[in-house]
Amino acid sequence: MKLNLHINNLPEREEEIEIVERKGLGHPDTICDLVVDHLSIRLSQIYKKEFGEIPHYNIDKAFLAAGITKNKFGGGKVVKPMLFVIGDRATDQVGRKKIPLAKIINNEIYSFLKSNYRFINKKNFIIQNEIKPGSTSLQDIFKRKSTFLPANDTSALVGFAPSTKLERLVFAVEKFINSSSFKSKHPEAGEDVKVMGQKQGKNFTLTIAIAFVDRYILSVEDYFKKKEQVRKAIEDLIKKTFHLKAKILVNALDDKKRGMDGCYLTVLGTSADSGDSGEVGRGNRCNGLIPLNRPAGSEAGAGKNSVSHVGKIYNLLSFKIADDIYKKTNKKNIVWLTSQIGRPVNQPSLVSVEIQNINDSDKDKIKKIVEDNFSQLNSFLNDLFLGKYKTV
User: Fold this and answer.
1) Would 306 be classed as within a structural domain?
2) Which contacts of 338-343 are long-range, i.e. CB under 8 A and separated by 24 or more positions?
3) What CATH number did the domain enclosing 271 receive?
4) What tens digit of pLDDT does each residue of 62-74 get?
5) 331-358 as b/e: b if 16+ CB within 10 A
6) Residue 171 located in a structural domain
7) 123 found inside a domain
8) pLDDT of residue 152
């Protein structure tokens, strides 16, 4: 199979200004992305077990409407729960065999929440299931018996490597705050963390929002004391791991003079309990970041099926190919994959690779890497099926 592969030079460019964001585990947008992607993986596995095949589905549309809470030092209460509305399309019957799709979806969502969030449960997170059967044309894609299914959309996706120092820094800080070891020392730090990183020349600034859990805060003074302890722990991590000094601002809206109203407090560790709603596709890209200086593809990856939807397949594959190229060449590169609806997913309509300081050796290596990835696409799709690649 001959691929439509184009390899070009990537102009060298040193960014004077770089901006990178990561929405953490408990951010409302991230909750939506993580839940639907967990569902997409589990549905594939359940379909395979129950039907012996994967029929049509996409679970990539969801909205989390914020609830209402009443904060209080020492522990507030939920007045109105969050509402999670999930829509899109999924199959519940193949031939005469039928599965209890609505029950499966509810069980999988609550199981995921229980495993990842300390305070979110059935009482404060209500599910509204609006999933319906798919259109006949998209369902028909899954009936076409071939090694690779046709792409169900025309899209352009992009990956790049390596990560910049700021990208690695922003990612590591959010992971650190949401680690079990950090939570054991600072249980007041909620799961809703947003890190906005900025590099100006050699100067790094991190503006970090952390939803503090009010049950662990006894007073205004206690809040600001614990906030400074959290800030200092982040500062120490950066010095130890990245060997640099960054300006760190935590909950920059706080105002000690305004009492409890001047503190960023939540009941459940997420702003979705009372302040901010969330939606699939508004959060991190498939490398776990929102790197604003980088090119962006036309699709979010979370919740899409892993056998025909290039929004997931090419999103993750483009980053894998870019990483493979960097490991072999040690050069910065960008990989674009473009699909055409109806064309098998192992036959992209275009593969475009840009690499710095290109030479003939690079071209040979890139050609082999790209061809190997598409010749071994079945193995990659199986890894998606098993949940080995994350879209958030």
Assistant:
1) no
2) 338/154, 338/155, 338/156, 338/157, 339/151, 339/153, 339/154, 339/155, 339/156, 339/157, 339/310, 339/314, 340/151, 340/154, 341/150, 341/151, 341/152, 341/153, 341/154, 342/150, 342/151, 343/150, 343/151
3) 3.30.300.340
4) 999 999 999 999 9
5) bbbbbbbbbbeeebbbbbeebbbbbbeb
6) yes
7) no
8) 85
